Amino acid sequence: MASLFEARWQELDLLDAGAGDGALSAALVRGLCVSRHKPTRISVTACELDETLIESLHATLHGCQQQCERAGIQFSATVLNEDFIAAAVPMVRDELFMSRKPRFNAAIVNPPYRKIRSDSSTRLLLRSAGIETGNLYAGFVALIAKLLAERGELVAITPRSFCNGPYFKPFRTDFLETMSLRRLHVFESRSAAFSRDDVLQENIIVHAVKSAPKPEHVIISSSSGASGSSVTEREVAYREVVSPEDADQFIHLAEGDAQDSARAIMGRLSASLPELGLFVSTGRVVDFRAKEFLRQQPERDTAPLIYPCHFNGGFVHWPKEKARKPNAIVSNEQTRELLVPAGVYVLVKRFTSKEERKRIVACIYDSHRIHAPLVGFENHLNYFHVNGQGLTMNLAKGLAAFLNSSVVDVYFRQFNGHTQVNATDLRSLNFPTKAELEKLGRRIANPGIPQEELDALVEEELF
Ligand SMILES: C[S@@+](CC[C@H](N)C(=O)[O-])C[C@H]1O[C@@H](n2cnc3c(N)ncnc32)[C@H](O)[C@@H]1O
Q1: Which of 105, 212, 268, 399 has its Cβ near the most Cβ atoms within 10 Å?
Q2: Distance between CA 399 and CA 390 in Å, rounded?
Q3: Strand 11-17 relative to strand 104-109, pairing
Q4: Residue 341 pairs with which residues in a beta bridge?
Q5: What is the pLDDT of residues 13-23, one digit of tens each?
Q6: In what order do the strands lie in the sheet with 374-377?
């Protein structure tokens, strides 16, 4: 991370927010002390909330001071044992009125990752500085971007989750407007250190420069994350990473040839979901809110309740014997709004486990196989429908096969670095035309056929 900075500073004012014991600042200072372009002065502002780390933070910065002395660089350090959000918001908010604006020309940061509740004081503080985000890491980065001077550089390691999805849109669009991306390094953190839910969380290192023109190219590099692992690196046109036409400003990370080719193939597809007359929604039955209506097995007055555990190859298999999830939901006035009419629907899991090979797992619910006038789709599923009704079988088969193809998977992973598949992510895809999907559907008996077979068929028909 320290090696990514480009500027050759005469004077460096460095911010390290969530500094821990100061390892990141120390790496940068160490590098500068032996560089051919030494600054004359380095000032570090390190902010760390955890009191137990302050002593070692001081010790690290003392080490930096000694190195700088030997290198003939003037050094000073300020340690703030405070909440960075609480410390930074007034600086950002009052900036215009402050006699001496805090100015940093560099920031190196590995912020904490934690959800911020919508009614918390942190959320309100951030909002008062014009920052809308539900995760602490994005709050840190957004504040840092505001505290940087023009042409100030940021190097941050964060989860990849801000690259797509609706929750991070305000943060992402602000960040991309203020900061000019230079490099993105992707690696998979198998340890998933910050995830309690055991979902895959990929991390990313971002290098960006404030208020600079957007570059022609961005460097995208990747490595496994294991110590000493090799790094692959490539230049990608900026517009391929963030498309100017994309209102959602997704950040795409094409790491190799397979990714390039998937992106090119998807770019040639011409239809959007509305053009196909299709909608995608999240399953309406939130099981813990509908507890009193759930039944383990179907009864006379119930409708099927479909969970991801009912996926079985290309088609939903229901009811499931010995299921841990309930198989049915009472069908009455109170639950009517939660149910959809019988029909053929394409379902996609909203969460896949780390072990699953594919991020997008699609399956067909077919009311010719499951005889019931209504059906409930649980909230862990997204479902494709035609204005609340089912699809034709051929369209459903073609769509499920397309979604299950490797090309879509490879493309999808370029902008979605976690295991959650949002309905907005699915809406953002390009699709083949309806005629193409139906033609593919006619050739497919079951969209759960082995991957190689499915890919070959999809390629032949669509690409
Ligand atoms: C992921 S660690 C990074 C530590 C260090 N920068 C490194 O890379 O080794 C995040 C650090 O942020 C600190 N932290 C958490 N919440 C904070 C807050 N609100 N303000 C300042 N520091 C905070 C944690 O105590 C922790 O040391």
Answers
A1: 399
A2: 13
A3: parallel
A4: 374
A5: 999 999 999 99
A6: 294-295, 328-330, 302-306, 374-377, 339-341
Rounded to two decimals, what is the model's pTM? 0.73
Residue with structure tokens 């899991």? 349
Bridge partners of 272, per DSSP, are none
Closest listed residue to residue 372, CA positions, set 292, 302, 458, 296: 302
Which residues have CB under 8 Å from 122's CB, separation 6+? 83, 85, 116, 136, 139
What is the C-alpha to C-alpha distance for residues 165 and 175, in angstroms, rounded to an integer? 15
In degrees, rounded to 5, the angle at the alpha carbon of residue 19 between the alpha carbons of residues 13 and 23 is 90
Question: Which residues contact ligand 1 via a Cβ below 6 A?
Answer: 18-20, 23-24, 47-50, 53, 83-85, 110, 112
Distances (CA, A) of 417 to 96, 98, 282: 38, 40, 20
pLDDT tens figures, 271-328: 999 999 999 999 999 999 999 999 999 999 999 999 999 999 899 999 999 889 999 9
Name the residue with the closest Cα to ligand 1, atom 24: 18
What one-character-per-residue DSSP string does 354-402 give? TT-S-S--EEEEETTTS--SEEEEBTTEEEEEBTTBPPPHHHHHHHHHH
User: How many angstroms does the Cα of residue 14 sit away from the middle of ligand 1?
Assistant: 16
Torsion of CA 375, 381, 387, 388, to 10 degrees: 20
The CA distance from 50 to 54, in Å, is 7
Report how far apart, in Å, the C-alpha atoms of 56 and of each of 26, 33, 80, 110, 330 are: 12, 21, 13, 17, 60
- The vertex-399 CA angle with 398 and 401, nearest 5°, equals 65
